[in-house]
Structure formats: structure tokens, C-alpha cells
Amino acid sequence: MAAKLRKGDKVVVLAGKDKGKQGEIARVMPKDNKAIVSGVNVAIRHQRQTQNSQGGRIAKEMPIDLSNLAFLDPKSGEPTRIGFRVEGDKKVRYAKKSGETING
Known about the structure:
mainly beta; three-stranded antiparallel sheet; single chain; six-stranded antiparallel sheet; 0% helix
């Protein structure tokens, strides 16, 4: 099945401690059904100092389930679902709320 959410998409978090926060998808992991969104679901990880890197407490973005993310409509900026349709000979994604085609 084609991926509804892809790298670079603007999304909003629907559930969890970061509910309502918006960000851009940095990485998608389809096998795990998760994505990493910039600035969302940040955890502190303790890192040991090495010759190459400084140690300490490092903020790291953790994966969030795709079911807790909603695509932001390019027209209205509200959360929307994504559908697929064929335009000419190409299969494209579109926002179900506004009907607008999504680039990519």
C-alpha cells in the first residue's frame, strides 16, 4: 500500500503528551508504523563522553506512531485525512477536507 504520510509532510499530533504540536516529518519507518517528527516527542538521553564527542544530556526526537499524526491541509492549515486519486496517468495524494492535490 502507498504511504499516506511521507518525509517532509507537515503534521499535527493527535494524541499523547505532545498533543496539538505541529512539525515536519524527518523520517518514516513503515515497518514499525512510526515516524520521527522534528520538535515533537523529545526525550533526554545520557551519552558517555568519547574521544570524538562531548558527553552529557542530549535531547533526541523519539518515534511516534503514525496513527497519532494527522496531515495538515495545505489550504486551511487544519488536520485532514489523505486519499489517493488518478490524475492523467499518475496516482496522486490529495487532502480530503479541501480536495487539494498534495505535491510529491
